[in-house]
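PROTEIN DESIGN WORKSHEET
SECTION A - STRUCTURE
LENGTH: 205
C-ALPHA CELLS:
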C-alpha cells in the first residue's frame, strides 16, 4: 500500500539549471560532486567550496522553473491523500527559495543540513520517522542514480525520471519504475491502487 511519496528537487520538480562546470572553474579543480569534495577537504577548503556552491544554488533557485506537469501531479497526490516529502542535497535556504517562488508546500523536508546526504539511506529513514510511514509504503522519485540508490538502500520503491538528452550508464542500480515526464507519477500511483485492489479481491475469495 502506497502511503507517501518522496521527491528529489533539482531535475525532478524543477528543470536542472545549476552550472556545475562554472562551480568547478571557480573552485579551480575538476571535483565531481561538490558536497563530496567539500567533505574530504580541509576545513578551510570545505568552507570555501560550500560558499561557492551555495552562491550558485541561490542563483539557480531564484531562476528555477518547474518541470511541466508538476502542479497537476502534486494536486493529484493531495486528492489521493498521500503524504509528500522533499529530499535534496541542496541547502535548506535554496529549498525555501524554490518553494516560495512556485508557491509549493511540503510538510516534510530534508536538506543536506539535516543528515548524511544521498546516496546514503539516512535521509529517507529520517523522513520515514517524521512522516510516520514505514519505508515499505514509500516511493522515492528522482532523476539520478543517487536517488535510486538512496531509495533502494532504505527499502522504498523507486522511480527514475529519465531525461531523453541524458545518457545513463548501465549500472547495478535499477529503479522499479521509469518515467519520461513527472506527471507520469499519476500512472505509477494508479498502478499501486490496482495492486491494492487486486490484493483485497484475493482476500475475499
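SECTION B - SEQUENCE
RESIDUE ASSIGNMENT:
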Amino acid at each position: 500500500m502506497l502511503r507517501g511519496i518522496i521527491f528529489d528537487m533539482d531535475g525532478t520538480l524543477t528543470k536542472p539549471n545549476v552550472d556545475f562546470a562554472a562551480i568547478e572553474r571557480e573552485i579551480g579543480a575538476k571535483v565531481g560532486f561538490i558536497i563530496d569534495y567539500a567533505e574530504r577537504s580541509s576545513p578551510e577548503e570545505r568552507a570555501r567550496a560550500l560558499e561557492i556552491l551555495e552562491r550558485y544554488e541561490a542563483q539557480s533557485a531564484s531562476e528555477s522553473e518547474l518541470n511541466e506537469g508538476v502542479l497537476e501531479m502534486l494536486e493529484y497526490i493531495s486528492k489521493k491523500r498521500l503524504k509528500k516529502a522533499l529530499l535534496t542535497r541542496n541547502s535548506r535556504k535554496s529549498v525555501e527559495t524554490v518553494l516560495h517562488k512556485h508557491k509549493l508546500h511540503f510538510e516534510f523536508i530534508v536538506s543536506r543540513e539535516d543528515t548524511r546526504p544521498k546516496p546514503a539511506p539516512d535521509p529517507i529513514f529520517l523522513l520515514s520517522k517524521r512522516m510516520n510511514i514505514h519505508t515499505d509504503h514509500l516511493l522515492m522519485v528522482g532523476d539520478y542514480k543517487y536517488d535510486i540508490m538512496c531509495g533502494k538502500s532504505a527499502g522504498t520503491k523507486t522511480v527514475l525520471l529519465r531525461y531523453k538528452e541524458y545518457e545513463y550508464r548501465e549500472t547495478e542500480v535499477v529503479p522499479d519504475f521509469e518515467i519520461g515526464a513527472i506527471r507520469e507519477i499519476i500512472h505509477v500511483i494508479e498502478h499501486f491502487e490496482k495492486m491494492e485492489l487486486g490484493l483485497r479481491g484475493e482476500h475475499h475469495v
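SECTION C - NOTES
The chain has a mean pLDDT of 90.
The first strand starts at residue 4 and ends at 7.
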